[in-house]
Amino acid sequence: MCAQKVENHDSENLNRGQWASKTEFILSCLGYAIGIGNVWRFPYLCYRNGGGAFLIPYLLMLFFCGIPLFFMETCLGQFASTGCISMFKITPIFKGVGIAIMIVNLVTLTYFNIIIAYPVIFMLKSWSAVLPWQECNNQWNTINCIQITSQNNGANHTNQLPFKTPADEFFHNEILKISSGIDNLGGIVWSVFWADLLVWVIVYFCIMKGVKSVGKVVYFTATFPFIILAILLVRGVTLPGAMDGIKFYLMPKWSELLNLKVWADAALQIFFSLGPGWGGIVNMASYNPFRNNTKWDSIIVPVVNSATSIFAGFVVFSVLGFMSFKTGQDIDKVATGGPGLSFVTMPLALTMMPFPQLWSFLFFFMLFLLGLDTVFVQLEAVLSSIMDECQMLRSHKSKVFLVSIFLIFIASIPCTTEGGMYVLQLLDWYAASISVILICFLELLCVCWFYGIDRFVRDIEFMLNAKLHWWWQVCWKYITPTILMFIFVTSIIYNSNVTYNGVSYPKWSITCGWLLCLTSITAIPTYMLYKLLITRGSLKKRIAIGLTSQDWGPSDAHTRQEWIDHVAEIRDR
After folding, report:
1. Residues 17-29: pLDDT tens digits?
2. Would you give the DSSP letter of residue 145?
3. Which of 108-112, 494-498, 561-565 has the lowest mean pLDDT?
4. How far apart are alpha carbons 122 and 126 in whole angstroms?
5. What is the value of pTM for the model shown?
6. How far is CA 375 from CA 29, 114, 123, 428, in A?
7. DSSP letter string over 206-226?
8. Which of 200-214, 322-336, 454-468, 488-502 has the lowest mean pLDDT?
9. What is the C-alpha to C-alpha distance for residues 115 and 367, in angstroms, rounded to an integer?
10. Judging by DSSP bridges, how do beta strands 499-500 and 503-504 pair with one another?
11. What local confidence, expressed as pLDDT, does residue 434 receive?
12. Helix (H) or strand (E) holding 512
């Protein structure tokens, strides 16, 4: 590796950067955790998996899995002031886990930016006399297009299936210009291409100075979505039919609690919403002052994140209830999850509101900001980890960011083609779901079993200058790993082949998806083998060396010496 030895830990920490205030850290964490999935995934999961009853497994998973993982990762990052690769100084043979995190983030960034490019196009199209997804008389509409209104609703045309709504055809035929499948990528869709480029330019100027610039930008990007959500909720609940939508969203179906998949979905939603295992939490915490009380941060952020998901559900289903009232369609026929909710169902519902241009702009601006914060943290996690390993790059931070963004943009071009949505769905389906669960399990294994839970608790208590409740130890060592294995197994058992918009994927593409998943996972044993080969001694000695922490501790020289003295004092007791 290209990491250079730095004798002066104070200088190293100063060059790396720190948050200007605790507020910047909290807002960055909130911006990272609260993303598009809170709007387009959680409400649908809640209604599909038992309504109000779903909140029981959801909140239990938050308490037993989400918060403990968040706290552990903030402690790792803050204690050593390092990113997701260098943190494995704690057990060097597992450094491949950090490399796996990098691979997952890089693959995710190639397509996630496209998702927030779509709202840009919708925002630009919102300020027209008639919204282009409101009527069926546009050049991209087909004979299957049916304008759904209270006088002429889709329920009256079930004998003419398949019918399409104007919003559906606008998104698929005009924005995506979607092809017949992943084996027919077609040409570049230039509106998506330029929107993708614009988003990357915005991202670069927001993060080009690293944590200093990100810390200032999040004051707006992490708070304004809450204002828009509140505005949309006030408007939504005053619409006719809104209460029916909210009742449908939260109506308890207690029998669903006996379904294993409901519990798995609850765990997955907590897991992927909060973002442990992606390196972002570790990296954000690494810019904290050493004595920051990260325990309360690690409770506040997950709780606010989950509350926002529930809150977003009220917004979404109040609007869907209104749409059901206007069209005469059942709510379960208009309620969907994923891209279909954000780019087909909600745009259609918004056209039925007074001043639809305003509400459409606000909704898509909110989606844009929610996605932007996630990209900030993911990209910062990747690039900071690279610079932790190659410290000579820190003096060229802006250039490193520019080159990296350009390369990721080039890699994202297949997602801007006519078959780009199929590529995006394939990457989203296989790139991270199983890999990140395994990464979190291995993090717990390294910290609690190889480094030792007693030593880790000792380090945290030194950092926080306070005793840690025994409950954290029980979660980290037993409860949370068990839950992760449960998620891992159920994710494989319930995994189904990817589809999009009713189109099945060919076998070769599914094989490519699984190979992509294995790419990050195989980095872990590959590095282990490399570490064993370059270490001298017997196999037993090589493994022992690989599992022994190296250069682990606070980055500040004075604090490190205090920690060394503290460890020696405990040992001598």
Report:
1. 788 889 999 999 9
2. B
3. 494-498
4. 6
5. 0.90
6. 12, 11, 19, 15
7. HHTTTHHHHHHHHHHHTTHHH
8. 322-336
9. 9
10. antiparallel
11. 87
12. helix 507-534
Dist. CA 161–CA 280, nearest whole Å: 45
Do 218 and 23 meet the contact criterion of CB atoms below 8 Å apart?
A: no
Secondary structure letter of residue 5 according to DSSP: P
Distance CA(315)–CA(225), nearest Å, equals 12
What number of CA atoms fall less than 13 Å from residue 540's CA on the CB side?
0
Quickly list H helices, 251-395. 260-274, 280-285, 294-327, 331-334, 339-340, 346-351, 356-389
| C-alpha to C-alpha distance for 471 and 64, rounded to whole angstroms | 10
Farthest CA pair distance, the chain = 83
**154 has a pLDDT exceeding 50:** no
| Residues with Cβ within 8 Å of residue 416, at least 6 apart in sequence | 114, 188, 189, 192, 193, 196
**Token pair listed for 378:** 């993911």
| Phi–psi pair at 570, nearest 5 degrees | -65, -40
Q: Angle at CA 189, nearest 5°, toward 398 and 361?
A: 75
Assess whether pLDDT exceeds 70 at residue 3. no
Work out whether the CA dihedral 175, 181, 185, 187 comes out positive or negative: negative
- Residue 471 exposed, middle or buried by CB count within 10 Å (0-12, 13-18, 19+): exposed
